[in-house]
C-alpha cells in the first residue's frame, strides 16, 4: 500500500485526477473512489517519507475541493440558531479515536440516509496524543472518507476540549497557555474551523464570589479567542466554544453562565467576535461511570439545567445554546430529549470506541494483544480498588495509537461489518437528535 515515490503516487491516480494550476480536477470520480483513494489515504497516514505523506494529504484536499467538499465553520448556522432563525435539532459532534477512515465513512452514509448536513467531526487535545492523530492527518482522513462515500458540501472539523491543564497552569501559566496556542495554530492550519476552548479546569471554587471563581476561565478563554481571531483565514470566522463547568464536576448554574459571559465579553470589548456556544455540566462524565463488572452505570442528565441555561445563553447572549459532553454512553431514552430542551450540540465519543472493540467482527487476537499491552505498559494507571474490567474499560482508549496501523489493516470484510454496525448507530442518533433534513439549512447559513 505504501508508495515509494511521488511519481508512483501520481501514476496510481492517472486517469482519475489531473493537476491543473494550483488545483486539481477529478476526471473519473468512480475510478478515484476505488483502490487509488484507499492507497492515497493510507499513505496520508502511514507513509514513512514525510514528503510522500504530505503530498498524499495535498492531493486529498485538492480532490475534495474539486468535488465540492470543503472544511467549514458552523459559526453562521449557530448565529442563526441563537436568533431563533433555525433550530429544533441538536448537532452531533463525533470523536473518532480509531478505525477513523471506516468510521467516518459510516457517518457520511448515515448522514446521506437522513439528508443531514448538521454533524461535526472532532478530536480532543488528549485524543490527539493517545490516538496518534495530529490535526492534519485527521482532516485528510475525514476528507478522503467524504470522497469515498460521494458526500458533497461543508465538513465541520472541530478541536474538542482544547483544554488547560490545571496542574501545568499552576506550575507555569505562560508555558501552558503557549502550548495551547501552538495546538490551536496547528489545528487552524489543518482547516479546523471550529475550536472548543476549555479553561473550566482552572475555575477557582475556593473563591466566595462566582465572578471571581470564573475569572481565570473567562480571562483565558478571552485571550485564546483573540489569538484565534487574529489568525483566521480570509473569509472564515472560526466557531469558538467556551466551557463553564468541568465535565464530571458539579452541575452548572445560570449565575455561573452570566458571570463567565459578562466577564468574557467585557474583556473582548466588542472588538472581537465571541464564542458561539457554551459547554455546561449536567451530571455526565467522559466515558460514563464504570461498574466493577465493566458495564456502565445509568446516568441521569439534568435536562432542566440544559433548558434553563440554553434560554439564558440564547436570549441574553445570542449564543446557539449549551453543549452537552459525555453523552455517547447515555441510555437510548435520553437522546430525543436533547433537541426538545434546546441543546445546541452533543459530544459523542466513548460509545463508538466501545462498539469497535466489542464488535464480534473485531479480531479477538488483536484485542487480546491490545489488552496485554495495556496491562503491561499502563499498569501505573491501575487505581487502587479498580477491578480488571474497570481498568481495561477506562484505559483501552490508549490502545488506538500504538495499534493504529494494525486496526487500520483489519481484514476488509471485518471492517465492513464494524462499519455497518456504526452506521446503524449513527443513523439512530441522527434521528433521535432530529438532525435530519438539514442539508438545506446548512446551504442557507453556511453555503
Q: DSSP helix count?
A: 20
CA gyration radius, whole angstroms: 21 Å
Quantity of strands, as a count: 11
The level of helicity is 40-55%
Poorly predicted parts: none
CATH class of the largest domain: Alpha Beta
Percentage beta strand:
5-15%
**How many domain modules?**
2
Overall mean confidence score, pLDDT: 94
Short description:
The chain contains 20 helices and 11 strands. By secondary structure, it is of the alpha/beta class.
What keywords describe this structure?
two-stranded antiparallel ribbon, TIM Barrel, 447 residues, alpha/beta, 2 domains, 20 helices, 11 strands
Structure description:
By secondary structure, the chain is α/β, with parallel strands linked by helices. The chain has 20 helices and 11 strands. A hairpin with a 2-residue loop joins strand 1 (17-20) and strand 2. The chain starts with 5 loop residues before the first helix and ends with a helix.
Write the layout of secondary structure elements.
Elements: H1 6-13, E1 17-20, E2 23-26, H2 29-32, H3 35-46, H4 50-66, E3 69-72, H5 75-82, E4 91-95, H6 100-113, E5 120-124, H7 125-130, H8 135-148, E6 153-163, H9 166-171, H10 173-189, E7 194-198, H11 210-229, E8 239-243, H12 254-268, E9 277-280, H13 303-317, E10 322-324, H14 337-340, E11 345-348, H15 350-358, H16 364-377, H17 388-395, H18 404-408, H19 412-432, H20 439-445
Parallel strand pairs: 3-6, 4-5, 4-11, 5-6, 6-7, 7-8, 8-9, 9-10, 10-11
Antiparallel strand pairs: 1-2
Amino acid at each position: 500500500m505504501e508508495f515509494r515515490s511521488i511519481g508512483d503516487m501520481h501514476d496510481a491516480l492517472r486517469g482519475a485526477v489531473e493537476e491543473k494550476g494550483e488545483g486539481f480536477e477529478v476526471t473519473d470520480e468512480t475510478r478515484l473512489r476505488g483502490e487509488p483513494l484507499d492507497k492515497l489515504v493510507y499513505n496520508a497516514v502511514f507513509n514513512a517519507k514525510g514528503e510522500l505523506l504530505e503530498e498524499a494529504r495535498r492531493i486529498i484536499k485538492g480532490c475534495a475541493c474539486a468535488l465540492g467538499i470543503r472544511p467549514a465553520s458552523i459559526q453562521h448556522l449557530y448565529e442563526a440558531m441563537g436568533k431563533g432563525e433555525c433550530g429544533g435539532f441538536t448537532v452531533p459532534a463525533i470523536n473518532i479515536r480509531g478505525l477513523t477512515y471506516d468510521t467516518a465513512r459510516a457517518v457520511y452514509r448515515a448522514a446521506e440516509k437522513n439528508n443531514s448536513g448538521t454533524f461535526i467531526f472532532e478530536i480532543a487535545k488528549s485524543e490527539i496524543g493517545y490516538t496518534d492523530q495530529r490535526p492534519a492527518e485527521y482532516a485528510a482522513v475525514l476528507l478522503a472518507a467524504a470522497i469515498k462515500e460521494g458526500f458533497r458540501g461543508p465538513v465541520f472539523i472541530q478541536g474538542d476540549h482544547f483544554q488547560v491543564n490545571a496542574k501545568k497552569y499552576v506550575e507555569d501559566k505562560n508555558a501552558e497557555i503557549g502550548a495551547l496556542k501552538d495546538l490551536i495554530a496547528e489545528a487552524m492550519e489543518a482547516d479546523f474551523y471550529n475550536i472548543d476552548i476549555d479553561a473550566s479546569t482552572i475555575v477557582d471554587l475556593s473563591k466566595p464570589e462566582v465572578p471571581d471563581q470564573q475569572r481565570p476561565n473567562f480571562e483565558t478563554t478571552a485571550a485564546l479567542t483573540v489569538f484565534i481571531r487574529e489568525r483566521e483565514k480570509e473569509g472564515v470566522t472560526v466557531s469558538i466554544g467556551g466551557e463553564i463547568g468541568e465535565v464530571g464536576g458539579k452541575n452548572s448554574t445560570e449565575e455561573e453562565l452570566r458571570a463567565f459571559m459578562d466577564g468574557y465579553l467585557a474583556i473582548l470589548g466588542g472588538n472581537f467576535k465571541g464564542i458561539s456556544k457554551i459547554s455546561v455540566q449536567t451530571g455526565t462524565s467522559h466515558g460514563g461511570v464504570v461498574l466493577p463488572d465493566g458495564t456502565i452505570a445509568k446516568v441521569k442528565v439534568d435536562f432542566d439545567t440544559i433548558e434553563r441555561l440554553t434560554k439564558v445563553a440564547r436570549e441574553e447572549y445570542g449564543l446557539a445554546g449549551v453543549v452537552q459532553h459525555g453523552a455517547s454512553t447515555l441510555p437510548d431514552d435520553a437522546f430525543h430529549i436533547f433537541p426538545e430542551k434546546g441543546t445546541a450540540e452533543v459530544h459523542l465519543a466513548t460509545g463508538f470506541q466501545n462498539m469497535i472493540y466489542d464488535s464480534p467482527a473485531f479480531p479477538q487476537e488483536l484485542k487480546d494483544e491490545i489488552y496485554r499491552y495495556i496491562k503491561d505498559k499502563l499498569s501505573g494507571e491501575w487505581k487502587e480498588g479498580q477491578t480488571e474490567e474497570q481498568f481495561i474499560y477506562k484505559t483501552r482508549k490508549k490502545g488506538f495509537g500504538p495499534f493504529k496501523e494494525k486496526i487500520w489493516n483489519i481484514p476488509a470484510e471485518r471492517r465492513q461489518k464494524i462499519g455497518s454496525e456504526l452506521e446503524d448507530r449513527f443513523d439512530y442518533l441522527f434521528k433521535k437528535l432530529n438532525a435530519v433534513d438539514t442539508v438545506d439549512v446548512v446551504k442557507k447559513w453556511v453555503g
